[in-house]
Design a protein that fits this description.
Length: about 575
C-alpha cells in the first residue's frame, strides 16, 4: 500500500490552487481510489491548518476520514484542531470513535485520557490511564500521565511509586524525573531529589535543563557553594544562560566579592540590558570598589528611566555625599526615605549631610525621627549620641549611649564613645575606665589605644605607657597618620624631639597621600621645630596650621611670640 507521502507527491500536481475540492480535475474522479481521495483531503486540511483556518481544516479531515476511517493520523489531526478551536467535548466524541476501533492501543487511551483531564473529567481520565498501563507496552508515558493526575488529587505516595515505575521503563523520561524530584523536595527528602538529578546528569552531563535544576535545588537548600560551582560549569557550556549570571552575581554580592559581582553583572546586562535589578546591583558593586563615576553611570540610567527604587536613590545620595555634592545628596536621600521610610542608613546619611552644611537642628530632627522609628537600633542611637556630642551637648549624649549599652552590653564601640562623652564632661577617670572596658571587649580596637595614649600624653601622665598604647594602635593600623601624630606628640611630651620629629613628618606625609591637611599635625610640627631651634620651619608649620584653623588663638599667639623672638634676635645681631 502506498504511503500518504507517495500519494501526495503523485497527485498534488493535479490539484487546483486553494483545494476547493478533492475530486481532482474533470475526468479524474473515477481514476482516484478512496485512499487517494483521503490523502488529498488530508493535504488540503494541512494547508488550511498552516494558514490558521482550523475550521476548514476540520472539515477536510472529516472528509478524509470518510474515505479512510481507520487512519489514526487523520483522527489525531482532526482532534488536534478541534482542541485548538476550544471544542473539547466534540474532540472527545470524535476520538472515542478511534478508541472503539483500537481498544488495545495504549497510546490512543492516553490521548483520550488527556482530553478528559483537560475538561475536568478526572475520574474518567484516571481510568483511561490505568487501562493504558494494563494494556502493557514499553512506554513510560501512561505512568507519567497517571502520576501527574494523582498529584493533582494529592495522592503523593502513589504518585511517587508510579513515577518510579515510569523511570524504570524509561530513565530518560524527563517529565517523570522532574515531577518526582519536586515530590521528594516537597517531602524534604533532599538526598533522593539530588540523587535523581545526578543520575540524569550521568546520562546527559551537558544537559542545560538538568544543570539549571540542580543549581536551583542547591540554592534552595542554601548550599550556595555547590550551586555556584554548578552554575559556573553551566555557563562554561552555555555562556548565554542568564539565570546562571543572576545567581552568581547575587552570590558574590552576598559574600562582598565586589569585583567578581561586577563581572557577572556586566555579562548579565549584555543578555538582559533592561534588567533593573542588575543595573542597580552593578551600581552597588562599583560603589563598593570605589569607582564612584562608574557606579553613578548605572544608577543615573536607572533613575532617568523612571524605574529607580528607594535603594537606588539612597546609593546615589551616598555617592553624591562622597563627591561633595551635598545638595544633590540631600535630595536623593530625602527621596529614598519618601519611597521607603525603613532604610535606616538613609536617615543617618541625611543627618550627616545636614550636620556638614551647618543645618544642625534639622539633622537632630532627622535623627530623633530615626530613633522613634528604630528605638532599639544601636546604629541609630550611636549616631544620635555622636551628633549631640559634636554639638557640645554631652549630658544628653550620655543618656543616649547609656540607653544603647542596655540593649548591647558587649559593644566595645559604645564604651569607646561613652569614654569620649566623659572626657568632654571633664570626667577623665570615667573616660579611661570606659576605654579600658572597650579594650577588654575588643583587644584589637586600635582607636581606643590611640585615644588612651593621646589623652595621657596631652596631660603628661604615664608617658611610657602612653607611648606603648600608641605603638599598639600603629601596629594594628600602620598607615594611620593620625595615630602616628599622637605618637609623635607623646615623644614630644617626653622631650624626645628627634623621635617626635620623625613621627610627625611621617604623619604629615601619610595624611597628604589621602589629599588631606590636618592643622593639628602642623601645629605639633611647629612646636617640635621650635624646640629644635628650627624657627623658620616652625613659622611655616604654624602658618599652615593657622590657615586650616583660622580661629585658633593659641596658634596665633605662638606665631606672635616667634616673630617677636626673631625680631629681638635680629636686633641683637645688628647691635653686635
Amino acid at each position: 500500500m502506498r504511503s500518504y507521502l507517495t500519494v501526495i507527491i503523485s497527485l498534488v500536481v493535479m490539484l487546483p490552487l486553494g483545494c476547493a475540492t478533492v475530486q481532482g480535475p474533470v475526468g479524474m474522479e473515477n481514476k482516484l481510489s478512496s485512499q487517494d481521495r483521503a490523502v488529498l483531503a488530508f493535504f488540503c486540511g494541512q494547508l488550511a491548518h498552516q494558514k490558521g483556518d482550523f475550521d476548514k481544516a476540520v472539515d477536510y479531515y472529516r472528509e478524509a476520514l470518510g474515505f479512510d476511517p481507520a487512519n489514526p493520523n487523520l483522527w489525531h489531526s482532526l482532534v488536534g484542531d478541534l482542541i485548538r478551536l476550544g471544542r473539547l467535548q466534540e474532540a472527545i466524541t470524535e476520538y472515542r470513535q478511534l478508541t472503539a476501533q483500537q481498544e488495545a492501543n495504549p497510546e490512543v487511551r492516553c490521548v483520550l485520557g488527556q482530553m478528559h483531564e483537560a475538561v475536568g473529567d478526572i475520574m474518567v481520565a484516571e481510568s483511561l490511564y490505568r487501562d493504558a498501563i494494563a494494556l502493557g507496552g514499553k512506554k513510560s508515558e501512561p505512568f507519567t500521565y497517571l502520576g501527574r493526575l494523582l498529584i493533582k488529587q494529592s495522592k503523593i505516595n502513589e504518585a511517587i511509586d508510579v513515577f518510579q515505575k515510569a523511570l524504570e521503563i524509561n530513565p530518560r523520561d524527563r517529565q517523570a524525573r522532574r515531577v518526582l524530584i519536586k515530590c521528594f523536595l516537597s517531602r524534604e527528602q533532599e538526598t533522593k531529589a539530588v540523587q535523581l538529578l545526578e543520575e540524569a546528569l550521568l546520562n546527559e552531563p551537558k544537559d542545560i535543563e538538568w544543570m539549571a535544576e540542580q543549581g536551583r535545588i542547591m540554592a534552595g537548600l542554601k548550599r550556595d557553594e555547590e550551586a555556584a560551582q554548578i552554575y559556573r560549569r553551566l555557563i562554561k557550556y552555555y555562556p548565554e544562560f542568564p539565570e546562571a549570571y543572576r545567581f552568581l552575581s547575587i552570590y558574590h554580592l552576598q559574600h562582598y566579592e565586589w569585583k567578581a559581582a561586577a563581572e557577572q553583572l556586566g555579562k548579565l546586562l549584555k543578555l538582559e540590558p533592561d534588567n533593573m535589578l542588575a543595573q542597580r546591583n552593578s551600581g552597588l558593586a562599583w560603589y563598593e570598589l570605589g569607582h564612584l563615576d562608574e557606579a553613578r553611570k548605572y544608577l543615573f540610567a536607572l533613575i532617568k528611566s523612571g524605574n529607580a527604587d528607594a535603594f537606588t536613590h539612597f546609593l546615589m545620595g551616598i555617592i553624591y555625599r562622597k563627591k561633595g555634592f551635598n545638595y544633590l545628596a540631600e535630595q536623593e536621600l530625602r527621596l529614598a526615605l519618601q519611597m521607603d521610610p525603613e532604610i535606616v542608613e538613609a536617615y543617618l546619611g541625611l543627618a550627616g549631610i545636614l550636620m556638614k552644611i551647618g543645618e544642625e537642628q534639622p539633622a537632630i530632627e532627622v535623627l530623633e525621627k530615626a530613633c522613634n522609628k528604630f528605638p532599639n537600633s544601636v546604629q541609630v542611637l550611636t549616631s544620635y549620641g555622636l551628633a549631640l556630642l559634636r554639638l557640645e551637648r554631652p549630658e544628653e549624649a550620655l543618656k543616649i549611649f547609656t540607653q544603647s549599652l542596655r540593649g548591647s552590653p558587649g559593644n566595645a564601640r559604645l564604651y569607646f564613645h561613652l569614654g569620649r562623652v566623659h572626657l568632654e564632661m571633664k570626667e577623665f577617670e570615667k573616660a579611661v575606665h570606659n576605654w579600658q572596658q572597650a579594650i577588654k571587649l575588643d583587644p584589637e580596637f586600635a582607636e581606643v589605644y590611640n585615644y588612651m595614649g593621646y589623652v595621657h600624653a596631652e596631660r603628661g601622665l604615664k608617658l611610657e605607657q602612653a607611648v606603648g598604647w600608641l605603638k599598639k594602635a600603629l601596629k594594628l593600623d600602620s598607615q594611620n597618620g593620625y595615630y602616628r601624630d599622637s605618637l609623635g606628640w607623646a615623644y614630644y611630651k617626653q622631650k624626645k624631639y628627634d623621635l617626635a620629629l620623625r613621627e610627625l613628618e611621617q604623619a604629615r606625609e601619610e595624611i597628604k597621600k589621602k589629599g588631606l591637611v590636618d592643622p593639628v599635625i602642623y601645629d605639633h610640627l611647629g612646636d617640635v621645630y621650635f624646640k629644635l631651634g628650627k624657627h623658620q620651619k616652625a613659622d611655616q608649620a604654624w602658618r599652615r596650621a593657622l590657615k586650616g584653623d583660622p580661629e585658633n588663638q593659641e596658634i596665633e599667639d605662638k606665631l606672635q611670640e616667634l616673630r617677636l623672638r626673631l625680631k629681638n634676635r635680629f636686633h641683637e645681631i645688628s647691635h653686635y
